[in-house]
Amino acid sequence: MNQPALAALLAKEFRTQMRGSRPAVLLASYLALLLLALFWLYQTLVGQVQQGVPLIGPQIGQALFVGLTLAVQLLLVFLAPATTLNSISSEHERHTYDILLATPLSAAGMVLAKLLVGVAFVGLLIIAALPLYSIVVLFGGVAVGDLGRVVLTVIITAITGCTLGLVCSVLTRQTYTATLLCYTVLVAVTAGTLFAANIWSALHGLASAPSSYLVANPVSAIASALGQSPPPGIVTVNALRPATLLGLLTRGSLNLNVNELAPPFFRATWLLYSGVALSLTWVALHTVEAHQHRRLLRFSRSDAWLLGLLVLWSTLGWATQAWWQAGL
Amino acid sequence: MNVRSFHIKHPLSLWLAWLLLLLMLLLLPLPAHAQDAVPPTADPTLMLTAAAMLNGNYVPHRWLAVQVRLANTGPDRVVQVQARLPSDSPPRAYTQQVVLPQRAEKQITLYLPMQSLARIAQITVVADSSAAPVLASTTLELFPRSEERLLGIVSNQPLTLALPRRQDLDSFPFVVVSLAPADLPADPRGLDSLTILLLHDTDTRLLSPTQQQALRAWVARGGHLVLGGGELNRATPLGLDPVLQPATLGAEQPLDVRPLRLMIPAPPSRLVGSQLTPLVPAQPFGAPEAPLFVQRMYGAGLVTQLAFSPTHPTLRAWDGAPALWAGLLQPARLYAGRTGLEADADTIQLPLIAQAAADLPASALPRSSPVFGLLVAYLLCVGPVLAVLLRRLDRQPLTWQLVPALAMLTGAGATSLAMQLRADQRIVSHATLLEATSPTTARSRTATLLLAPQATQFELHQSPDTLLRPLDAGQFGSVMFDSVGDDLAQQRDTQSLTVARWQAQGVLAEQPSELSLPHAAIILDPQGVRVELDNVSDSALRELQINYGTQHATLASLPAGAQATVPLVSSVLEPLLPASSAGIAALGQAAAPPEHVPLLPPVPRLVAVWTEATAPLTVAADAAAIQYRSLLSMPVELRAQGQVQVPEAWFVPDLSLSAGGVPCTIGGQGGLLPQTDTLTLTMRLPDALAALDPVSLRVSFQSSGVAALDRARVRLYDWQQHRLQAEAHPVLPPTISQQVAAPQRVVQHGRVVFVFSGAITDLGCVRPMLALQGVLP
Prior knowledge:
The complex is a heterodimer. By secondary structure, chain A is mainly α. Helix content of chain A is 72%, strand content 0%.
């Protein structure tokens, strides 16, 4: 890989990513939506307390934590692919794609640079949202480990979303078509799997749906990561119970016992998404290289690298199967 | 062989035999009064003697007083006396600190809440320091008495009653405990296990004021005090509080024993006793001019003044004496408690008080506006402000550095601000039931539950006369609670309690409280029935309910110093309003526990939320969310005067003078279900109407059975002739009432006796409905 060329492309991409008002508007809108959601949730909980429901601080803190994290995940699931959707297709549309391929920059370098910039922007969004969690600190009920677990889930989901957007952009070569393809897949994965789990639950006497139905769902994955913190031993009956919503997202039904933890299939989701991200990156790289060298079946150095990474991923998955299968 | 030769041949074996016999006599164990058994490591300069009250007999879940005497022949020292019940789980000690100067002798009383069925108690004395060696210890033998009648006899002379044998009683056999007058405790908790207390040949003027108060409080809580009559007992009632005196004793005279036929088949031939003059309100039994006994309800309890002496020669020789004592020496109340039938409602009330405390308050909410304000400022900075600024400077790529920097800075600032504003998440919940034992004192029982986000030690402040006992584990709604595992100190003003992380744990505290209680009276006069209230206390009252049988009156609030008059209405027609909170509802249930069988008329009772914060414990946790809930329960005086129409609901079955049926309920009121072909059903009025002079009486009958009414007959008991009237009336439906001729013959001391015969088992639950008019002085 030609490192000076890569560095130059990265610098250019980082500069152009922040050009114009679009990134600022996106950032501000994203933070404003999160802050509004947080404020609305807080007012709802305070309203319950004022009506005499004896909520304790950690219950409020946990409810805010769950609500804020779900909002972050929901937004990023749809924002992350948007950062890379037009990365290759815009080059095709501006007819600069072939010029780029003619430069000393390798195909792998170009794809990785595009991916890196997209991931960096999503990372910026995640970091920008972190101060909002100080509200949770005000009430307690959430440990540092809980925050770490959900942030890791969000990051893995965001990276996978970026690679999905990149692949759609590479395969379709048109931003419009890439957008359609990407969001169709997202809706199928997000809403379709949840719907299937609900149907299964309804057909089986509202029993909990198998976790395999939901392991690919990013919202269910974050709900599973959130549902690992038991509420305090004192739980009131008529209070706002995020566990009910988490139950719907992780089991397809509403009958989660408030003291019962959600099935930890987020571990399987981590493994699945990391494998999917590697695979999609490989597809994107190979497609661009094939176009560059005009040979589809050429096995390049980047193919070897990614194959090696996939083998490593498989080995890791096999070695830790007891850990991630516990949630299934 | 002659003795002399034996003595010469075997001198050593004879001496050895005598020595062995002497040793055996010296080592005989003494029941429940252990000598100071000195363990090998004990301090010989400290002598310990311990004795359990009531000879170690106790009713489970009641207090048992243990008197501990310490004699110090060594240097000045401070020691801690510890009492342990090996059956307690988790194990804990009840402790009291004692200061023992040199050559001092002190006696203390430790109170043990007998939560478990213990047969021994270990009393230990340790030095009051962190490394506490055992200075002395002893073991007491205890005797749990579930479903047994503990009869305490206080008499200057030994007294033996011809009581029924255990096997002759279906339930509640007698266990007799003798007490000297000086041994009467000064704390009503020392009498906790006693069902009945008989005072005979005891000059109560010699009792101390605290002993008098303890007696009064014990009766108010449900005890049955029986006072002997006759010449020997002239001084017995004289020193008692007037509320515990049902009658005055006059000259000795022959007593008319014929009314005893209502209690036992064959009365004695002759009985001599004092002439009793009933004091109002009281209910005599027997001939008006010479009642056999007079009873008076006080609080939940009962006082019975006998006309005759328990040592009367007739009672010793008479075969019917056991049946008479079985009928007279009954518990005042019976409840279906945790260990079976119990004479008081503690095992029903204590879990409800704990549940009331488990209705937790919301924890204090922190001020969130500064944090939200900071986040809004952050949003504005990182959004439009930064964008405009960088665009003007043409440095938009700096967004990559500045946004994370701003986020880190704001995150650190907001987090530290949140940590500072974070509220105290500890919760302290007190629920108190105040039960009046006199117009100025109440028995206060408080459940205190503590909750903390991490394992925490709470410091509690209490008055020295507060006793702490463990809380039984339970659940209220979704809140599970349990007792603390700490040792519980007595006669101390501080106590440390340790609670686990997010576990609601606590204790129950009991204390006599001095309070100025409101005045309440149910008035029955020619104008009708009403409740008059005068809140002379210092606390406003809310959610007032006055309950009397199936009638009630309600008032939303009554400020301190205010008065009010409210009507008494039927609970069937006008249901009670629900309580304002689940905790108050639980306390309300504790204030009015259901009786298993109503042996006495119901007590008119006022129940109200006491708004002044009352709890014998103060927790040092100012910033915590602290909740006080108090409910007052006090008896209401019943007064009647003039020409009155007695409310039908005020008649209740008198089970002590009824036979041939079992209690039942019809139309929300008490009746009897016939079990044989003859049913004796006595209906009685409350004490305040015992002196009613009947003018008019109409009777009808309510029954739940399809009833071959025309095959059933009823006769009334003629009190003047001491026999059933010859005329038998038909048992007619409730729509048809019959006028009773000469009601003054069938109504005496507020009692009317019906005898049903014929095919009455088809009647089902039957209750006479009486429309009685009369005149009260």
